[in-house]
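Hello forum,

I keep getting stuck at the same step: I have a sequence, I want structure tokens, and every attempt I make locally crashes halfway through. Rather than fight my setup again tonight, could one of you with a working pipeline run this one for me? It's a single chain of 260 residues.
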Amino acid sequence: MTPLVSIITPLYNSEAFLEETITSVLNQSYSNWELLLVDDCSIDNTMVLANKYSANYSNIIVLKNQSNAGAAVSRNKGITEAKGVFVAFLDADDLWKPNKLEVQIKFMQANNCVVSYTSYEQIDEFSKPLHRLVKVLPELSYNKFLKTNYIGNLTGMYNASVIGEIMAPNLRKRQDWLLWLSAIKMSGKPALGISESLAYYRVRRDSISSNKLALLKHNYWVYKKGLRYSTLKSLYRMLIFIWEQFFVKSRLIVSTKPQK
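Reply #2:
Ran it on my machine without issues. Output:
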């Protein structure tokens, strides 16, 4: 059985990396997929590239926001249009290994899994390895995942036939964390991790996510705006987050640099 997988890729001024990202999808050993490219009013050649691939591949669909609205709106537009049994996400600068979908679908089917995620490696802006592997925990309960974001969005997948559509809240950053929190909660059981590294996350110097301190305020908004906790409870959760992020999760990032 080869169920359809819907892959959602938000776009905004993504011309520098988009072709490499799309190629990593085209190279998948698992062929029953659709790729939804959702443009957020790019002002570079992103739409030219997206339309070129859409014209050549019937399973690559281009969607466009009416105005620049942010990544959450783009993700939600893709989720609404998705037809797949499974839904996965791939940002326009990240990459998948060729067996990513095949391994993950087989794992989810074999384990009756609703939400899954995998280990991944980090690369730089020139696609060169940074020799860092981000390992996964074998499983994630809702309460454990509430402490910090353990799922690399480029690796996550959920069974939409079980839990339906899940909308990302309209936050500038970390809306993916809230989406996966909702998915785990709605599934009624822990998400399961695949230890094999199946993707490459691009670390960019100009991205907010490259600055961990700058991200702290966005994590606070996850609790305050996303989960609607009180200010006091949000601050308390942030203390737990800081400990979990910097003293627990950090141990999952290991060097893959060959020893001399």
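The mean pLDDT is 95. If your local run keeps crashing, start a new thread with the error log.
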